[in-house]
Design brief:
The chain has about 200 residues and is mainly beta. It has one domain. It has one helix and 13 strands. The strands form two sheets. Strands 2, 3, 6, 7, 8, 11, 12 and 13 form an eight-stranded antiparallel beta sheet that branches. A five-stranded antiparallel beta sheet has the order 1-4-5-10-9, with no helix packed on it. β6 and β7 form a beta hairpin. The longest helix is centred in the first third of the chain and has 25 residues. The chain is globular. The protein starts with a helix and ends with a strand. The structure holds calcium ion (CA).
Length: about 200
């Protein structure tokens, strides 16, 4: 009897270990972070201290989602409000992979008052750690109607990783005599403005 019970216990244990291993191998494919409302940090100049502005809705991140699909890496950053009242908007995302590949992705939009062709539709840049560009078919979409910034990177931008981790911040700037800026992290944590996602597998 005892031997039969021990055998049954061993069988259950093996099934449990097997399912745990299978779950680990499959891994996460996506991750969403809910960021607090009213946590935007404002600055009115290079010498002025930052202060939290709870009523600042424009540029206040509320949710950031990353996905790792068969062919691409996706990010969607959602705001309480995203309006064209600044001189420039910048969403900055850092990614690192299981192979040690590191990329910085910037989605930038500029008021037409600023020089250049970028405008409010924006542009996307992918760079290596040494700031050299990576030309890999990255795309972005900024929606001032749904208050969201979306980007898509072909997995080739990251040398086709098994998994990546990412973090994201958003900043907006106004230049000139009444210059000011705002900053919000996509995932506030005890360790800083924007914590890293878990490993996201394709
Ligand atoms: Ca926020």
């Amino acid at each position: 009897m005892l031997r039969r019970l021990l055998g049954l216990a061993m069988l259950c244990l093996m099934v449990l270990i097997g399912s745990a291993t299978a779950g680990q191998a499959a891994g996460l494919h996506g991750h969403t972070t809910i960021d607090p409302r009213g946590d935007v940090s404002m600055s009115t100049g290079p010498d002025s201290p930052d202060r939290v502005a709870p009523r600042q809705a424009n540029g206040d991140i509320v949710r950031t989602t990353f996905r790792h699909s068969e062919n691409a890496v996706w990010m969607r950053m959602r705001f309480r409000e995203l309006s064209r009242t600044w001189d420039s908007l910048v969403a900055m995302v850092r990614l690192r992979t299981n192979d040690g590949v590191y990329r910085e992705v910037s989605v930038v939009a500029l008021s037409p008052r600023m020089q250049g062709q970028i405008g409010w539709r924006g542009a996307i840049d992918v760079e290596r750690r040494d700031s050299s560009p990576v030309n890999c078919g990255a795309a972005r979409h900024i929606s001032y109607r749904t208050n969201a910034i979306l980007f898509r990177l072909p997995r080739a931008c990251l040398s086709n990783p098994r998994w990546f981790r990412a973090n994201a911040i958003f900043a907006a700037f106004r230049y000139g005599k009444n210059q000011n800026s705002l900053l919000d992290g996509g995932n506030n944590s005890a360790r800083g403005l924007s914590g890293w996602t878990p490993r996201l597998h394709h």
